[in-house]
Amino acid sequence: xxxxxxxxxxxxxxxxxxxxxxxxxxxxxxxxxxxxxxxxxxxxxxxxxxxxxxxxxxxxxxxxxxxxxxxxxxxxxxxxxxxxxxxxxxxxxxxxxxxxxxxxxxxxxxxxx
Amino acid sequence: xxxxxxxxxxxxxxxxxxxxxxxxxxxxxxxxxxxxxxxxxxxxxxxxxxxxxxxxxxxxxxxxxxxxxxxxxxxxxxxxxxxxxxxxxxxxxxxxxxxxxxxxxxxxxxxxxxx
Lengths: 113, 115
Prior knowledge:
Chain A is 0% helix and 59% strand.
């Protein structure tokens, strides 16, 4: 059974810092991995999608890497801003007929002005 | 990117009543839709997977007679919480994807409060 873990569970940093969020998964048989952002009381916003054949994806100040063989992904946020404060979730798409998206427990990020 | 809508965005109901939540893919055909629930400060828990025209597949521990899912068309799936009780109060989120392991797009969520 696929399990997804995210560390740290919470992170508080001053504005301007570069930071790394970690995601690990137990079964490397995945189609892709997605990073999402969730603001309190809101739905999810997709940030980056990495296919299993890819090593990384970049969008603006965000860079996500994927090492499928070791079951790890990182989300790098450069020059953090208070507006980046949110919960960040990673999810893997399972390689079975249901294409389930299995979520980690998330990292709550607070960027202090 | 693709847009998924949910209606209503929030609902308050009395214990014992049924509530229907709609999930629509606005600009693509969603052959698969997923329903999640989320408790405060917790991650998303997959409830069921529905494929257009077939019965939903429920995750272990989810009562299919309580959470009725219908995926009658390629753009609409509904979740009906039957005989709702206060413990059913939660944030319900749907997601939709095109055929195969494509990107998944999420709706804005529906907050259900059962009094």
